[in-house]
């Protein structure tokens, strides 16, 4: 199950194994994120690798030293998730392709998050020091583009995924820090993973959220399907960090007078008197 946060960070459901709050910069509407200072990140219309018009955030102050430009999303409700995944698609200009660029030019940026129980950051009151935020990682480009590439519309789009947790408050903000790159942020997809509801060994297991760590195993208790009873107890499955079920323990079986139908259904036993 995926939850996308599209432009307003509202949730929408799609068929998948991750619940996605996806922040897609793909429409012509303003995203309403907060940039500081005003000379840093800028929201503009641009093109993706398929030449579709999209809204992007870009920054390119490579000739000015000591850059510290912040871009802050709106508040994101975590919806009970303990671990969050962030997929970023972006382009970065190759510093060596910029004539007379100083040594302060970068091809990386930093990803941070700030966990909170309420909406606190607005255009008038935002935290712009690094202290309130927790750093997720420094994000580097696998591929960068030159002016020749850009002029010919040959975009080299990078996709990077990072995760963080455990989370315990109602939601969080994401922050992107530029400190001297020439880059565009094309899209941000924020999601979490869960194991889907499943019937196994004649038992029903509920949809289960993954744990706080990528290596976590979350126990889900099973309930015998109608017309069945426990054989081994306890009946449980483990949900791993990738949203996959594993390590089944215990099982149910059809009660007397009932028989298996299609593996996980118990129906009245039918017999021929002839």
From TrEMBL:
SMART domains: EPH_lbd. It holds the Pfam family Ephrin_CRD. It is a single-pass membrane protein. Its EC number is 2.7.10.1. The keyword Disulfide bond does not apply. It is found in: Membrane. This is receptor protein-tyrosine kinase. It comes from Oncorhynchus mykiss.
């Amino acid at each position: 199950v995926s939850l996308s946060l599209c432009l307003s960070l509202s949730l929408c459901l799609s068929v998948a194994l991750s619940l996605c709050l996806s922040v897609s910069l793909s429409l012509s509407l303003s995203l309403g994120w907060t940039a500081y200072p005003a000379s840093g990140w800028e929201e503009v219309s641009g093109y993706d690798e398929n030449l579709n018009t999209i809204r992007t955030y870009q920054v390119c102050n490579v000739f000015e030293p000591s850059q510290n430009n912040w871009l802050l999303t709106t508040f994101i409700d975590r919806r009970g998730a303990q671990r969050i995944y962030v997929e970023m698609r972006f382009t970065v200009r190759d510093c060596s392709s910029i004539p007379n660029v100083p040594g302060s030019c970068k091809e990386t940026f930093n990803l941070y998050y700030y966990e909170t129980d309420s909406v606190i950051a607005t255009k008038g009151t935002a935290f712009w020091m690094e202290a309130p935020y927790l750093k997720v990682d420094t994000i580097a480009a696998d591929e960068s583009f030159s002016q020749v590439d850009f002029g010919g519309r040959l975009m080299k789009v990078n996709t990077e995924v990072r995760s963080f947790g455990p989370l315990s408050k109602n939601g969080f903000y994401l922050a992107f820090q530029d400190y001297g790159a020439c880059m565009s942020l094309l899209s941000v997809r924020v999601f979490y993973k869960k194991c889907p509801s499943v019937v196994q060994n004649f038992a029903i297991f509920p949809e289960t959220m993954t744990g706080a760590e990528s290596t976590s195993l979350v126990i889900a208790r099973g309930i015998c399907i109608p017309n069945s009873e426990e054989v081994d107890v306890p009946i449980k499955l483990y949900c791993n960090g990738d949203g996959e079920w594993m390590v089944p323990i215990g099982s149910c079986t059809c009660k007397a007078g009932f028989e298996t139908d299609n593996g996980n259904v118990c129906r009245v036993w039918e017999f021929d008197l002839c």
